[in-house]
Design brief:
The complex is a heterodimer. By secondary structure, chain A is α/β, with parallel strands linked by helices. Chain A has seven helices and eleven strands. The radius of gyration of chain A is 21 Å and the shape is globular. The termini of chain A are far apart. Chain A has a single domain, classed as Rossmann fold (3-Layer(aba) Sandwich), CATH 3.40.50. In chain A, strand 8 and strand 9 (165-172) form a beta hairpin. Chain B is globular. In chain B, 52% of the residues lie in helices and 15% in strands. The relative contact order of chain B is 0.12. Chain B contains twelve helices and ten strands. The chains are: A alpha/beta, B alpha+beta. The A-B interface holds A 68, 71-72, 75, 188-198 and B 8-9, 12-13, 15-16, 19-20, 48-51, 53-54, 58, 62-65, 69, 73.
Chain lengths: 266, 380
């Protein structure tokens, strides 16, 4: 049994965001962090490794510096790393990215007991599309928004946490799960892990490595193969601060009603 | 000279220490300081993530890191709480190093391994009421009686002794030989006759557990002797020489922590209609302080790299501690001044860092003792 975790290096939102002339992010020039939801996926995989001794492989598509992120995940306990990196892959949208990652996962090989894990969504694009698209392209059953999970034999029971309620779903391996922050609290690297991660295998898959896969076609990968065209990038206006009304039910309802009347909303 | 650049592993370790200190230590700092207690849940996590065995090889359960990485740990942890820093330091560079450097293989397997693989904590007992800087004045005795040694005496200011499982204690096996009559022993917690007092109330680093130890006919098997009889003083001085690199790093951490807090504060605090960061006094003060902290850090790193490379590092360690501890005191005092009245309150962390800084000029050798070492080396 092995768990493959797809992770993404994203701009550190506390730093400066640089945008290319074509509207895509200039990832190479920004301070980066590991996408927070992906950390929950890694933690879930490592917890399962603690329990079952399974192998954990971390995979990312990105420029060569993303290798540093894979090393950090290996210092936390992941066994292997795969960097998917090539000029041909640059500028990919979610469709093209999932083509490439699906091909990379096929190359790693997905067997009956295996699980693919992703974060729910990345904080840079906020699309939540890549995980589900990979599952579709690999023909794997998928469960998104996993906030709790339990594995019994080849069945995983997941609690999906949605905005309007919960949903419990059982799924058989092999499958793909996308994880949310409620799932766990990610661990740190260990000092020993840091000094040993350099000896763990870290492979790079280039265009050459993956080009024979039917998913990899210059028309379906990279900027050219991306159906999404970025028209304009902008920073959304910040949401105003909320207000908490204190008091018992009737009191707060009256207060709320008078405030809404005052603002001519009702 | 090659480069002032950390390796990839050292950079990763620094990041991990920062994250750990920020998330795990910071929320506990005030409570631990006010209650003068150490959080044992935190200690367990420190063991688990390898903060208590950084510079020791994996064959004994250590992290396989180097002394430089250990200084990064000391700096990052001490930025947030120097009490946690000294807890790591005494365990790592005093207790463990005596056993690692001079212990027999079976002592390493029995005592060193649990100390660095995450299950036990250690302390180091040299100082006595009448033997401070004059460490040769130890009065505790160890008398051989068949297959045992019998220890009698008193120790004071022994960090970690409140909870340690393993005690490295120094006693005279032959008083007539002076420092050459001192020996080092490993004593288990709970050995009959070994009594530990309550935490001694102090000005700073109040969360660390620093107690008195009384030994009344403490009988230990003779095989708990570290090295040979008469080697104790040498073992202690060697451990302290290495320990000073960690204290230098702790002082750098205290100073950098105070600067980081001050930088945040002066950007927010407004007087005369503008942020006090806009005043030249603030800018010049911060520039002077950061320059000194950078110099101190480079001295700490130089001593650490010398130790890693097996070079003679003792004078460099003494110099880095002498300088960094002085810088830590100046920086924290100035930080409180830049904060003004708020800096004096316990609402902001700089008053605590100022209280914590003072001890770095005293323990593991006073600044005066450091000058004796440096001057002595120069005039040999």
């Amino acid at each position: 049994m092995k768990i493959i975790v797809c992770v993404k290096q994203v701009p550190d939102t506390s730093g400066k965001v640089a945008v290319n002339p074509d509207g895509t992010l200039n990832r190479a020039s920004m301070q980066t962090i590991i996408n927070p939801d992906d950390m929950n996926a890694v933690e879930a995989a490592l917890k399962m490794k603690d329990e079952t001794g399974c192998r954990v492989i971390v995979v990312t598509m990105g420029p060569p510096p993303a290798m540093g992120m894979l090393r950090e995940l290996m210092a936390m306990g992941a066994d292997d790393g795969v960097l998917v990196s090539a000029r041909e892959f640059g500028g990919s949208d979610t469709y093209a990215t999932s083509q490439i990652l699906a091909a990379a996962l096929k190359k790693i090989g997905i067997e009956k007991d295996d699980i693919v894990m992703c974060g729910r969504q990345a904080i840079d694009g906020d699309t939540a599309q890549v995980g589900p698209q990979i599952a579709e392209k690999l023909g794997l059953p998928q469960v998104t928004y996993v906030g709790e999970m339990k594995k019994t034999g080849g069945t995983i029971t997941c609690k999906r946490i949605l905005e309007d309620g919960y949903m419990t779903i059982s799924v058989k391996t092999p499958c793909l799960l996308t994880c949310i922050k409620e799932l766990n609290a990610p661990r740190y690297m260990t000092v020993r892990g840091i000094f040993e991660c350099g000896q763990k295998p870290l492979e790079t898959y280039t265009y050459e490595t993956l080009k024979d896969d039917p998913l990899i076609d210059l028309a379906t990968i990279g900027l050219k193969g991306s159906p999404t065209n970025i028209f304009k990038s902008f920073t959304p206006p910040a949401k105003g601060a909320g207000m908490m009304l204190e008091g018992d039910d009737k009191d707060t309802c009256n207060k709320l009603a008078s405030m809404l009347i005052e603002k001519h909303i009702i | 000279m090659v480069a002032f650049k950390l390796t990839q592993e050292q950079e990763m370790a620094k990041k991990m220490f920062q994250q750990f200190a920020e998330n795990e230590i910071k929320p506990l700092v005030t409570e631990m300081d006010e209650s003068e207690t150490f959080d044992f849940g935190l200690l367990k996590k420190m063991h688990h993530y390898g903060l208590m065995g950084v510079p020791y090889p994996t064959e004994y359960g250590g992290s396989g890191g180097d002394v430089l990485t250990y200084t990064l740990c000391m700096e990052e942890v001490s930025k947030i709480d120097p009490s946690v820093g000294i807890t790591i330091s005494v365990h790592t560079s005093l207790c463990c190093s005596c056993i690692y450097e001079h212990g027999r293989e079976e002592q390493k397997q029995k005592y060193l391994r649990p100390l660095i693989d995450g299950s036990q904590s250690g302390c180091f007992g040299l100082t006595e009421p009448n033997a401070g800087t004059d460490a040769g004045g130890v009065l505790t005795t160890a008398v051989k009686d068949g297959d045992e040694y019998v220890l009698n005496g008193q120790k004071v200011f022994i960090t970690n002794s409140g909870f340690a499982d393993t005690f490295v204690l120094f006693a005279m096996t032959d008083k007539s030989l002076g420092t050459k009559g001192m020996s080092a022993f490993i004593v288990d917690k709970g050995t009959p006759g070994l009594e530990i007092s309550k935490n001694i109330p102090r000005m700073g680093i109040r969360a660390s557990q620093n107690c008195e130890i009384a030994m009344m006919d403490v009988r230990i098997p003779a095989d708990r002797l570290i090295g040979k009889e008469g080697m104790g003083y040498k073992i202690a001085m060697g451990a302290l020489a290495g320990g000073r690199i960690g204290i230098g790093a702790q002082a750098v951490g205290i100073a950098q922590g105070a600067i980081d807090e001050t930088v945040k504060y002066v950007k927010e605090r407004k007087q005369f209609g503008k942020a006090i960061a806009k005043f030249q006094n603030t800018q010049f003060k911060l520039a002077e302080l950061q320059t000194k902290v950078d110099a101190a850090r480079l001295m700490v790193w130089r001593a650490a790299v010398a130790k890693d490379n097996g070079e003679a590092y003792a004078p460099m360690a003494a110099m880095c501690k002498l300088f960094a501890s002085d810088v830590a005191n100046e920086v924290t005092r100035t930080a409180v001044q830049l904060f003004g009245g708020y800096g004096y309150t316990r609402e902001y962390p700089v008053e605590k860092l100022m209280r914590d800084a003072k001890i770095t000029e005293i323990y593991e050798g006073t600044s005066e003792a450091m000058k004796m070492i440096v001057g002595g080396t120069m005039l040999r």
